[in-house]
Design a protein that fits this description.
Elements (H helix, E strand, L loop, with lengths): L12 E6 L10 E6 L8 E11 L1 H8 L15 E8 L11 E4 L2 E3 L5 H4 L10 E2 L11 E5 L3 E3 L6 H4 L5 H11 L7 E5 L3 H12 L3 E5 L3 H10 L3 E3 L9 E6 L6 H8 E9 L12 H5 L4 E4 L5 H14 L5 E5 L3 H9 L6 E5 L2
Parallel strand pairs: 10-11, 10-13, 11-12, 13-14, 14-15, 16-17
Antiparallel strand pairs: 1-2, 3-4, 3-8, 3-17, 4-5, 5-9, 6-7
Helix pairs in contact: 4-5, 4-9
Keywords: Metal-binding, NAD, Oxidoreductase, Zinc
Pfam families: ADH_N
Family: Belongs to the zinc-containing alcohol dehydrogenase family.
Length: about 350
C-alpha cells in the first residue's frame, strides 16, 4: 500500500511542559516553544494528530512521579504522521501514521528482555517521562517502539488505545480471568472502559464499581452486568478483579470481594498507601494480589489486533492542545467521560 502524502512539517515544536510539579490548581504545566528536533538514528519525527491524557501524566504533573528531567513535555498516547525519519528506519515511510506508547526503550540484553519480559527491564525508558512526549504538535519516537496505525479510524479514537488500552489489556491478563469468569473493575476511566470490552468479548461477566455516576452509566451501556459504588459489594463473588483507581483503600475492598483462588491486579503506576491487610479476611483461600508494571511491545501488538477484531468502542472527550491544563484538571476531578484527548490546532 502506498504511503499517505507527506504532512506539513511544523516550523517549531509548540506544546506544554511540566515546569513546577504540584497540584493541578497550582499550574504545573507551562506553554513552551522549542526548536523542532531532528530525528537521530532509528527515530521518527511525527506531526502529532492527537495525544491521549493519561492518569500517569497527571501523576507526573502533580509530583507523585518524580520528574526524570526538567521541563519535560508529557504525553505517551501519541498518534501522528511521519514527517522525517533518521538513518536506519525501515518500518515506516514519510506520511505513514504511527503511534507512540509509554514504553520507549529497553536494553534488549538483560535477563528480563531475553525472557520476553521487557516491561521489567532495569534500563527501560518512558515517553513523556525520560524524554519529551506528545503534549505538543510534534514528537520524536524510536521506530522500534512505535506501532503502525490504520488510516481508517480517527486519531482521537486511536490515541487512548496506546496506553489506556494496552495497560488495561495487560492488567486483564494479569488478573488471570478464567473463561466465562466474573470480573470486577474498580474505577472506570480510560483503561477500564477498554479492558471491560475485551473481557465482555471473551465471554466474561463484568461488574463495575466506581464513584462516578456518569461512569456507571457508561459501564452499563457497554454491557456490564452491574455498576455500583466503589466501596460497595458486587452482586456475586469475583473470580478476578482489576483496580484502576489509584486508591490504596480499595485494595482490601476488592480482595474481600474475590471468591476462593481469585486474583486482584493493581493496574496503576502510582497508588496511595494500602491499609493493613488481615490474612484471614483478605488473602486466605489462596487469593492473589498482583501488580502491573508497564507493558511489553507484544502486549501492544496483541491488544491493537484484538481491538480491531472486536470493533472496540472508544469513548473520548477531546480538548484543543491549548487547553491541556484544563484536560488535566478535569481528569483529576473525575469530570472526563472515557478518555481525554488533546488535538493540536
Amino acid at each position: 500500500m502506498a504511503a499517505a502524502s507527506a504532512p506539513d512539517v511544523p516550523d517549531a515544536l509548540s506544546g506544554w511542559a511540566v515546569e513546577r510539579p504540584g497540584p493541578v490548581a497550582s499550574g504545573p504545566l507551562a506553554a513552551v516553544r522549542r526548536a523542532l528536533p531532528a530525528p537521530g538514528h532509528g527515530e521518527l519525527l511525527l506531526r502529532v494528530e492527537a495525544c491521549g491524557v493519561c492518569r500517569t501524566d497527571l501523576h507526573l504533573a502533580e509530583g507523585d512521579l518524580p520528574p526524570h528531567r526538567p521541563s519535560t513535555v508529557p504525553g505517551h498516547e501519541i498518534v501522528g504522521r511521519v514527517v522525517a525519519a533518521g538513518p536506519g528506519v525501515t518500518r515506516f515511510r514519510i506520511g505513514d501514521r504511527a503511534g507512540g506508547a509509554w514504553l520507549r526503550g529497553t536494553c534488549g540484553s538483560c535477563r528480563y528482555c531475553r525472557a520476553g519480559r521487557e516491561n521489567l527491564c532495569p534500563a527501560s525508558r518512558y515517553t513523556g517521562w525520560d524524554t519529551d512526549g506528545g503534549f505538543a504538535d510534534a514528537a520524536l519516537l524510536p521506530a522500534d517502539y512505535a506501532y503502525p496505525l490504520p488510516d481508517d479510524r480517527s486519531a482521537t479514537e486511536l490515541a487512548p488505545l496506546l496506553c489506556a488500552g494496552i495497560i488495561g489489556y495487560r492488567a486483564l491478563r494479569r488478573s488471570a480471568l478464567p473463561p466465562g469468569g466474573r470480573l470486577g473493575i474498580y474505577g472506570f476511566g480510560a483503561s477500564a472502559h477498554l479492558a471491560a470490552q475485551v473481557a465482555l468479548a471473551e465471554g466474561a461477566t463484568v461488574h463495575v464499581l466506581t464513584r462516578s455516576a456518569q461512569a456507571r452509566q457508561l459501564a452499563l451501556e457497554l454491557g456490564a452486568s452491574s455498576a455500583g459504588d466503589a466501596y460497595g459489594r458486587p452482586p456475586e463473588p469475583l473470580d478476578s478483579a482489576i483496580l484502576f483507581a489509584p486508591v490504596g483503600d480499595l485494595v482490601p475492598v476488592a480482595l474481600e470481594a474475590l471468591d476462593r483462588s481469585g486474583t486482584l491486579a493493581v493496574a496503576g503506576i502510582h497508588l496511595s498507601d494500602i491499609p493493613p491487610l488481615t490474612y484471614r479476611s483478605h488473602l486466605f483461600y489462596e487469593r492473589n494480589l498482583r501488580s502491573v508494571t508497564s507493558n511489553t511491545r507484544e502486549d501492544g501488538r496483541e491488544f491493537l489486533a484484538t481491538a480491531a477484531r472486536i470493533g472496540i468502542r472508544v469513548t473520548v472527550s477531546p480538548y484543543p492542545l491549548d487547553r491541556a491544563p484544563e484536560a488535566l484538571a478535569d481528569l483529576a476531578g473525575d469530570r472526563v467521560q472515557g478518555a481525554a484527548v488533546l488535538v493540536p490546532g
